[in-house]
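testing teh design pipeline on a random one, pls ignore if ur not involved
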């Protein structure tokens, strides 16, 4: 049976997903302007070179799905650790976003 998670956790989950999407959108914009040479993630770069924008987008979709599932599990199993668990993917996505913005404005 599915149980609802606390509203605070749902809000943090939504922010975590939004940060992942922001990372993806800025990646697409930066690569369109600068090219893939500016991408520091070798996995995203290889996927882009072999599959175009769809490669990194599919990877981000899979990663975001795993993040959502892990955070839902954490919310139910370890609710007192949810904030820390949510901050990890948010921080990583923010770092990607910041890197993409710097790549975009730096060229």
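output:
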């Amino acid at each position: 049976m599915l149980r609802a998670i606390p509203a605070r956790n749902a809000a943090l989950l939504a922010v975590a997903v939004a940060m992942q999407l922001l990372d993806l959108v800025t990646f697409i914009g930066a690569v369109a302007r600068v090219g893939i040479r500016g991408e520091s993630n070798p996995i995203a770069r290889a996927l882009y070179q072999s599959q175009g924008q769809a490669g990194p987008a599919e990877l981000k979709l899979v990663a975001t799905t795993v993040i959502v599932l892990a955070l839902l599990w954490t919310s139910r199993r370890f609710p007192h650790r949810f904030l820390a668990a949510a901050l990890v993917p948010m921080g990583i996505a923010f770092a990607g976003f910041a890197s993409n913005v710097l790549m975009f404005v730096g060229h």
